[in-house]
């Protein structure tokens, strides 16, 4: 089995101005970058050119598709908007299919309220399954996000978040490695 580093990109799932999920995504990327067994990249959907005048594979962004094909696993940082997920995130995810099959995904919910995006994660679970992604058992939640970071986007109290992220990452890494090995063996 491969000893190459796992490639686990982080998708920032909203294009909105003033998004509080941006410092969360940057924190996650920063922490992942400190792990020598991993490679990562931030994919900000705000920077992708995704047409809206067709459907599915015809809308595929070549760079995004290539990153998803290369990925061993994914992290989606997604804010909860009225109990749901951003439409542009769903639109983007639907542009790929075969690129996701048998790959692990960790969901990171962000909200201004007390539940830390738990409802958006619930709504994304059937979508992930339909896309062929395998969700982790442990999610990452950022509650009351507006009070977690300073004006510069730095966590005010990083230790609890780092502990939770480490637990989340340990599971995602294990699942990504197991699924990569399975894909290499061709047993599915």
What does this molecule look like?
The chain is an alpha/beta fold and 188 residues long. It has one domain: Flavodoxin domain (Rossmann fold, 3-Layer(aba) Sandwich). It is built from five helices and eight strands; from the N terminus they run E-E-H-E-E-H-E-H-E-H-E-E-H. It has helices at residues 21-33, 62-70, 87-93, 118-131, 158-185; strands at 6-7, 10-12, 38-39, 42-44, 73-79, 103-110, 133-135, 140-142. Strands 2, 4, 5, 6, 7 and 8 form a six-stranded parallel beta sheet that branches. It has a two-stranded parallel sheet with strand order 1-3. Helix 3 (87-93) links the parallel strand 5 (73-79) and strand 6 (103-110). The longest helix has 28 residues, at 158-185. The protein starts with 5 loop residues before the first strand and ends with a helix. The model has no long low-confidence stretch (mean pLDDT 92).
The DSSP helix count reads 5
Residue runs with pLDDT of under 50 for 5 or more positions: none
Give the class-level CATH name.
Alpha Beta
Number of domains: 1
Radius of gyration equals 16 Å
Name the helix and strand elements from N-terminus to C-terminus, one letter apiece.
Answer: EEHEEHEHEHEEH
Intertermini distance: 16 Å
What do we call the CATH homologous superfamily?
Flavodoxin domain
| 3D shape | globular
The amount of helix comes to: 25-40%
Secondary structure tally: strands: 8
Supply the CATH architecture.
3-Layer(aba) Sandwich
Structural class, from helix and strand content? alpha/beta
Largest sheet: 6 strands, parallel
In CATH terms, what is the fold-level topology? Rossmann fold
Would you tell me the overall average pLDDT?
92
What percent strand? Answer: 15-25%
Protein name: NAD(P)H-dependent oxidoreductase
GO molecular function: FMN binding; oxidoreductase activity
Organism: Pegethrix bostrychoides GSE-TBD4-15B
Domain NADPH-dependent FMN reductase-like: 10-135
